[in-house]
C-alpha cells in the first residue's frame, strides 16, 4: 500500500494573497513575499516535525479566529517573533506556553487566521510528544 510521507503544502484562500505574503515576509522573514514560500528540510531545526491533526468541530482551540483551521509555524526565537508580529499589526492572543517539546505562542494575522508559533527545544533536549 502507498503511504503518505509528509505534508507537501498548505493551501488556503485569502482576500489579498499578495498583501498577506508581503506581511509574512516583512514581519516574520518568510520568503520574499512572492507567490509562495518553500521550507526546505535542511533549513529546519533538528527537533521539529509536522503534525496533521483533525480537531473536533466544537473545539475552541482556534479561537478567537472563526476559521476552521490554524497554522503552526516553526520559529527560532518565539519572543522576538511575537514582538515582530505585534509591531506589524498582528494581534497576539493568549499566553506563551512552555512544554518539554518546545515553546508556543499565538497571534491573528491580517486575514484573521490564528497562527501558532512553535520554538522547538534545542537538539538533544527532548523528542516529540506521544
Give an account of the 3D structure:
The chain is an alpha+beta fold and 130 residues long. 17% of the residues lie in helices and 20% in strands. The chain is built from two helices and four strands, in the order H-E-H-E-E-E. The protein has helices at residues 17-28, 78-87, and strands at 71-74, 91-99, 102-108, 114-119. A four-stranded mixed beta sheet has the order 1-4-3-2, with helices on one face. Strand 3 (102-108) and strand 4 (114-119) form a beta hairpin. The two termini are 25 Å apart.
Produce the secondary structure layout:
Elements: H1 17-28, E1 71-74, H2 78-87, E2 91-99, E3 102-108, E4 114-119
Parallel strand pairs: 1-4
Antiparallel strand pairs: 2-3, 3-4
Which structural traits does this protein have?
130 residues, alpha+beta, 4 strands, globular, disordered C terminus
- Distance separating the two termini: 25 Å
Q: Strand tally, please?
A: 4
* Large-scale geometry: globular
Largest sheet: 4 strands, mixed
The percent range for strand residues is: 15-25%
Helix-and-strand structural type: alpha+beta
Order of strands in the sheet with most strands: 1-4-3-2
Q: Could you spell the SSE succession in H and E letters?
A: HEHEEE
Oligomer: single chain
The percent of residues in helical segments reads 10-25%
Low-confidence stretches: 126-130
Q: Report the radius of gyration as a whole number of Å.
A: 15 Å
Q: Give the averaged pLDDT, no decimals.
A: 89
